[in-house]
Design a protein that fits this description.
Layout (H helix, E strand, L loop, with lengths): L1 E8 L8 E6 L2 H12 L3 E6 L2 H4 L9 E12 L5 E17 L6 E7 L10 H20 L15 H5 L6 H9 L3 H18 L2
Parallel strand pairs: 1-3
Antiparallel strand pairs: 1-6, 2-5, 3-4, 4-5, 5-6
Length: 196
């Protein structure tokens, strides 16, 4: 368990993925200033106010710890930051504090134990499918983005696919790499069949 400042946004951050952010709202300017002075980490949690209404700090939400890699303050108090996703977390409880931003007690949210036998070949199949989509549907010029089949590939692939954040959140919450790859494969096969 750890105390974690929360930044609810209508985007999903995956472990290992970079994400640039423009921070302009006063409470999150305060949050980023606090994070830069501390360990440079906050929890990015998917929330779309247009779909879900105002954010309420309820237990059970799953997000991704964001590490601030670059911080560029602007003269008017706004800032540009570059983050990278680290581990996933689950909100265990909210914290009432004097801070303007949300804070939570966060628990680790890792994968369940899963047999890793044959995973390199399994990842290569998904990567090959991804390359087919890039070549046949997207007409993406080579070289294609590199996906390492020797490391977890589900999140590597998911971060390259621009699609509905609700679907991305489902991938983020999925607890085994095989299941994540199955979700991605189903999507990529649908894209190949429908050409969109």
């Amino acid at each position: 368990m750890r105390r974690l400042p929360l930044f609810p946004l209508p985007v999903v951050l995956f472990p290992g993925a970079p994400m640039p952010l423009h921070v302009f709202e006063s409470r999150y300017r305060q949050m980023v200033a606090h994070c830069v002075e501390a360990d440079g980490r906050f929890g990015l949690i998917y929330h779309d106010p247009d779909r879900h209404g105002p954010y309420t700090l309820e237990p059970g939400g799953v997000g991704c710890v964001a590490e601030i890699l670059k911080f560029q303050p602007l003269p008017d108090g706004r800032s540009l930051i570059l983050c990278r996703g680290e581990d996933r977390f689950r909100v265990d409880d909210g914290i009432e504090s004097a801070a303007l931003y949300y804070e939570a007690v966060a628990a680790p949210y890792g994968d369940l134990d899963d047999d890793q036998t044959g995973m390199v070949m399994r990842r290569r199949r998904s990567i090959a499918l991804f390359h087919r989509v890039l070549e046949e549907v997207i007409k993406y010029p080579r070289p294609f983005p590199e996906i390492d089949a020797r490391a977890e590939a589900g999140f590597q692939l998911a971060q390259t696919i621009r699609i509905d954040p609700n679907w991305q959140q489902t991938v983020l919450e999925t607890r085994t790499e095989r299941d994540r790859l199955d979700l991605l494969d189903d999507l990529m096969r649908a894209v190949l069949e429908n050409g969109v």
